[in-house]
Structures are given as structure tokens and as C-alpha cells.
Amino acid sequence: MDKMPKWADVLLIPFINLLLAFILSGLVILAIGKDPLVAIKTMVEGSFGSTNAWGYTLYYATNYIFTGLAVAIAFHARMFNIGGEGQAAIGGLGVALVCLAVDWPHWTLALPAATIGAAIFGAGWALIPAYLQARRGSHIVITTIMFNFISAALMGYLLVNALKEPGNMAAETRDFPAGAHLPSFHEMLAPFGIEFSKHAPANISFLLALLCCFLFWVLIWRTRLGFAIRSFGHSETAARYAGISPTKIIMISMMISGALAGLMAINNVMGESERLILNSVEGAGFIGIAVALMGRSHPVGVFLAALLFGFLTQGGAELQLWENIPRELVVVIQALVILFTGALDNMVRAPVERLFLKFKKRVA
Amino acid sequence: MDFLTLIQILDSAVRLATPLLLACLAGLFSERGGIFDIGLEGKMLAAAMLSASVAAVTGNVWLGMFAGVGISILLALLHGLASITFRGDQLISGVAINFLAAGLTVVIGQSWFGLGGRTPSLMGEGRFKSLEWPLTETLEGIPIAGPLYSELISGHTFLVYVALLAVPASWFILFRTRFGLRLRAVGENPAAVDTAGISVVRLRYAAVAICGVLCGLAGVYLATGLAAGFVKDMTAGRGFIALAALIFAKWRPWHAMGACMLFGVLEALSNRYQSIEAPTYIIVAILIVMAAGLVWSSRKSLLDLAVLGGVAFLLVTVGTVSLFSSGLFGQTAIPGQFIQALPYILTVVILAGFVGKATPPRAGGEPYVKER
């Protein structure tokens, strides 16, 4: 059977899926008695209208790049890592421990150390589900879901009983030392004469996220390990026949996935709140699923999808502020994107494929 | 702990186990039919919200119940559409349904009632009433059996008894009827069912629809029986605990009841106590035995030793810390967070196959394609 051209698969189908999701979301806005056009205007202005707005959009996008890449690398090995939420939370623990352990003199020293801490803790939290999948055949989806809940309980316990500063009512650590402060966009762009909002949380982790996108691409398409991961994802039997160890691939790809999710903590814990708080991840681990699905597990796609969801998150906050539409609307849009790009993919794909075949026949 | 406290804890355990049990049986039908469903949570949430809304507006809990079950069936059919008709990924579809419900319940609830996603509190006929069994007052005076009867057995709402009756009913349907045999077969080997001239698609849709009904009842009970109205995210992971119970029960109805009751007791305990005191030497002994077991079972491979040895090391560390902080014959406080996480931890242990092996239905999660 002939196939569709590649651009249709990479661009057209995600576009149709997104359009469907947006149309349905528009209907939801209509149904609750608001004007979708006003809503879109509010969202666009609120997320791109000023450098402050851009700062929030890019801040959220940074989170989603990390979690999106985490889900994407597991997808390449045909695994579904639903545990990004827990891995990012535990990654935050790693960042907090590193930042609080030493009175860091400068961020150039603190950042690499915290990066390693976040990656190790995130990977460690993915280790047991990966091991159980590889050696015991326990379904990775179920174990990672369970580990999300276990991590929530663990973080609750640790913050209240071990990490909280005595006398502080809120369950949070003390503030990180000043030397662990990451440069924000305001500080980074000031030397170039660009005036960026002081209050926006976007920081240098955005560049780290871009670096991760590039390294992801190198790993998956330019290295032997990446080839092994992709072949394992296409056909386990073929990979096994080629001498690729399934245990090794499952373990390594899940650990990288956990490490990427953990790295998100550099942005939200070290870059934004500068202390560890309860429930710091705020669902970003789950949004990573939508991001990876929309981005077709490719770093460029993940980057664009993360930008889209950064816009939606920031725009959603603005909607709540100005239009009195709950920001949970973004969760609805996220759900519809997951539904159309992930679960109902065939619903869109089959008719489009048929259309292309018809068109081809007519040309020939 | 005196007898009356015990009865009270068990009583609240039964109430808390009810939504778990209904959702667990819902998952049982779906997964026995070969459709994985991690969207139990979302269906419960949607049913809870709509039933509370309808009950609040009409003042009639029965109308609320039908509305709640209705929306749950709709979502279940959406899951069926994605995973049976369009052969999509069942896990991804379940995730989508969870988010859809989490978002829509708040967005719509805010627009209807303007209470930030809550529904108005239900009063009078808007809630399910406790059913008092006959002779509760006369029998109350009898020691042990009296309070057992009047507190534990009598005095629950209608849906608690429905959930308990659903267990033998599910067992009968699955293991003693033709439909049940076919349903189980379609989860194990759909090609064989197809060859016998029975529609795989129809059977799977039936499984998904039954799942919708039971999930709906679970959600309705949450909002109109256990609580008085809907609050944002009120399922709070119960759909996933039900999923855990299903694995714990190895996809069998009676065991599902046992697992849900166990998880209900755990929830009741963690609601009542901040932490539970236990003698340190018992805790240390348990931890050491577990650590030794892990190391023993990993003696054959280096990878096993690295991972399980690491876990064993953590267990021993926890034991050492509690030993040094309270002394061997002191009391160690088991934190409430641990008791809350215990259902999830137990499920991972069961899944790992260290204590019995949980094997899911063989064709679960795979869309059936007629011609290869």
C-alpha cells in the first residue's frame, strides 16, 4: 500500500487533531456562556503581549520541554512513562538537597551540581519501575502511576518532618542560598540592552532545555544506543535477534526518561521558587504526555508543542483573571489533544490517508 | 484500642471501601474483556459531579444517580470508540478521559453554580439516606453482637449494599453464565471467540458499558452518600486505588472485595490517626526480613543485586534510624503518609511477583484486528 507523504504525517495530521481539539474547546467556552473569540484574544495577549507574558510562557514551556522529552524517549522504546510527575517531584528533592547542602558561591558551580542531582534523583525514581518491567514483566504504566502516588506521600512526609525549617508553618524548605540563584531572562538580556520584565520567572534553564532537545536528537538519531532504542521500539523480536538486550534498553531508556523529567526541577524549583514546596510539579509531568504525542516524539516537535502548552497554561491563567473562566479549561484542551493525537489518531488518519490515495490515483 | 473504636474504624472502612469496590468491579469487567481502563478515576469524577449537580437542582437523589451513571456510560463509550472501533491506545485514551473529567467538572461546575467548582451542599432528599435495619434498637444492648449489627451491618446507604451485592453478582455473571465465559474468552483470546462466530466488538462494548455503569455508581456514592455534594478533584486518586485493588485481587471478584476492604481499612486508619505507634523491634525485624528476602532473591544476577540490594539497603537504613531514635523496645511512629501510600506500595510488590504473581488477561490492551 502506498503511504502518505511525510509532511502530511508530521504536519497535516497533528494540525487537524489540534484544530478538532480547539473547536471542541471553543464549543465548551460557548456552552458556559462566554465568547471564544474574546477568550482567544485574552489568551494571546496574556501570553505574548509583553515581555512579562513571554517570560511566563517560556517558563512553562521549559517545564514541558523537559517532561515532553522524558515521555518521548520512552515512546521511542515503545514504553509509556506516565510517571513524569513523580520523577520531577523527586528531581526537585535532588535539586533542593544539592542547593541546601553547600553555601554555593556562584550559580555557574551550583547549576551543574544541581543538574546532576536532579538527573540522578529523577532517574533513581524511574529505576524501580524500569527494573520491574525489564526483569519481572510488571507493566510500566501501572508501576509508574503507583510511583507517582508514592512520591507524593514521600514528599509530603519529608517536607513536613525532615526538610521544613523549624518554626515555619508552611511545608517548604528554607530559601536556597543566594549563590544558587539562576540568572533570569531579565539579568541575561540586560547586557544586550534588551529590557525584559523583572518579574517573569523564565530563566537560564530554558537554554538547558534547548540543549537537552539537541542532545536528545543526537542520542536518538546519531548514536548506536539511539538506534538500539528505536529498533527495540519498532520490534522487540527483531531487536533481540540483532543482539540488542531488551533489559538493557528498557533500563537505559527509562533512566534517561526519569532523568529528563527530574531536570524539570532546575527550572521550577531552582529557577522559580528557589526553595522546595509541596506539589511543585503542578501537573507538568502529565502535560508532557500531550507534548510528546503532539510533537511526534521528535525534539523539534516537542519544542513546538511545549511552546503551545506554555501558551495555553499562561493564557489559561489570564482567562481566569480577566474572563472568570477557570484555568482548568487548559486541562480540557490538554485532554482533547491527548484524545485526538493519541487515542483517536486513526479516526483522523484513515480518512486523510484515503484522500491522499484517491488524489494519487487521479494524478497517475 | 477498645471494641467500640474498632467497630467505628471498620464502619468507616466499609463506607470508604464502597466506591473502591464499585470502581474495582467496573475495572474487572473491562479488563476481563481485554480493555485496559485507567480512566476509572475520570468516570467516577464526572459521575460524582453530575449526580451532585442534578441532585442539588432537583432535590432528588435518584435523578442524580441516573444522570451520574449516564455520563459515566458516555465516557465509557468514548473509551470504547477510541480503543475498540478506532483501535487506538487504550492507556492513552484512559489518560485523556481522566483529564477531560478533571477539567470539565470544574469549568462546567463554575459556570453552573459559581462556587469555584463545588456544587451546593446536598440536603434532605438530595442525598442517600442510611437504611436502618429492623430491630437495631432492640438488639443494640447485646454485647459485641449488638453494636456489630447496629453500627457495622445496619445504617449504611443504599449503594453500600449494592456494592456488596455486586460482588456475588459479578462472580456469577463472569463465571457461571455464557456471557461471562465469552467475556473472559475475549480478554484472553479474541481470535478464538471470533472464530466461534461471536462478535468481539459487541462483547467488548458490553464490557465497557458495564464498566461505565459501575464506575458511575462509585462516583454517585462519593458525592451523594459519602459526602454531601461535589468538590473539585473529590475522587483524589480513588480510581487508581481501585485499579491497584484489581491487580491485588488478580482480576477476581471475591478477592477484589477483600482488597478493597483492606484498602478501606488503611484509609480509615490514616483518616483517624496522624501516625500509628508500633514496637520498634517488630518494625526492625520486619524490615530486616524483607531486606534479607530481597538480597536472597537477587543472588543470581548482578543487575538484580544492584537494584534490589539498593532497596534492601534503604530498608535497613530506615530500620537503623528508627532503632537509634527510639531504642529497641521503644515505640516507633509509622507516619500517616506511609499508610496512605501502602495500597500503592503493596500493588507494586504484587506486580513484581515477590508475593504471588499477578498476570493480567492475555489480550488486555491490544486492539483486535480481524485479518492479519
Automatic annotation (TrEMBL), chain A:
<feature type="transmembrane region" description="Helical">
    <location>
        <begin position="300"/>
        <end position="317"/>
    </location>
</feature>
<keyword id="KW-0472">Membrane</keyword>
<dbReference type="Pfam" id="PF02653">
    <property type="entry name" value="BPD_transp_2"/>
</dbReference>
<keyword id="KW-0812">Transmembrane</keyword>
<protein>
    <submittedName>
        <fullName>ABC transporter permease</fullName>
    </submittedName>
</protein>
<feature type="transmembrane region" description="Helical">
    <location>
        <begin position="53"/>
        <end position="75"/>
    </location>
</feature>
<feature type="transmembrane region" description="Helical">
    <location>
        <begin position="202"/>
        <end position="221"/>
    </location>
</feature>
<feature type="transmembrane region" description="Helical">
    <location>
        <begin position="249"/>
        <end position="270"/>
    </location>
</feature>
<dbReference type="InterPro" id="IPR001851">
    <property type="entry name" value="ABC_transp_permease"/>
</dbReference>
<feature type="transmembrane region" description="Helical">
    <location>
        <begin position="329"/>
        <end position="348"/>
    </location>
</feature>
<feature type="transmembrane region" description="Helical">
    <location>
        <begin position="110"/>
        <end position="128"/>
    </location>
</feature>
<feature type="transmembrane region" description="Helical">
    <location>
        <begin position="140"/>
        <end position="160"/>
    </location>
</feature>
<feature type="transmembrane region" description="Helical">
    <location>
        <begin position="87"/>
        <end position="104"/>
    </location>
</feature>
<feature type="transmembrane region" description="Helical">
    <location>
        <begin position="276"/>
        <end position="293"/>
    </location>
</feature>
<keyword id="KW-1133">Transmembrane helix</keyword>
<feature type="transmembrane region" description="Helical">
    <location>
        <begin position="12"/>
        <end position="33"/>
    </location>
</feature>
<keyword id="KW-1003">Cell membrane</keyword>
From TrEMBL, chain B:
<feature type="transmembrane region" description="Helical">
    <location>
        <begin position="65"/>
        <end position="84"/>
    </location>
</feature>
<feature type="transmembrane region" description="Helical">
    <location>
        <begin position="158"/>
        <end position="175"/>
    </location>
</feature>
<feature type="transmembrane region" description="Helical">
    <location>
        <begin position="91"/>
        <end position="113"/>
    </location>
</feature>
<protein>
    <submittedName>
        <fullName>ABC transporter permease</fullName>
    </submittedName>
</protein>
<keyword id="KW-1003">Cell membrane</keyword>
<keyword id="KW-0812">Transmembrane</keyword>
<keyword id="KW-0472">Membrane</keyword>
<feature type="transmembrane region" description="Helical">
    <location>
        <begin position="281"/>
        <end position="299"/>
    </location>
</feature>
<feature type="transmembrane region" description="Helical">
    <location>
        <begin position="12"/>
        <end position="30"/>
    </location>
</feature>
<feature type="transmembrane region" description="Helical">
    <location>
        <begin position="305"/>
        <end position="329"/>
    </location>
</feature>
<keyword id="KW-1133">Transmembrane helix</keyword>
<dbReference type="Pfam" id="PF02653">
    <property type="entry name" value="BPD_transp_2"/>
</dbReference>
<feature type="transmembrane region" description="Helical">
    <location>
        <begin position="341"/>
        <end position="359"/>
    </location>
</feature>
<feature type="transmembrane region" description="Helical">
    <location>
        <begin position="205"/>
        <end position="231"/>
    </location>
</feature>
<dbReference type="InterPro" id="IPR001851">
    <property type="entry name" value="ABC_transp_permease"/>
</dbReference>
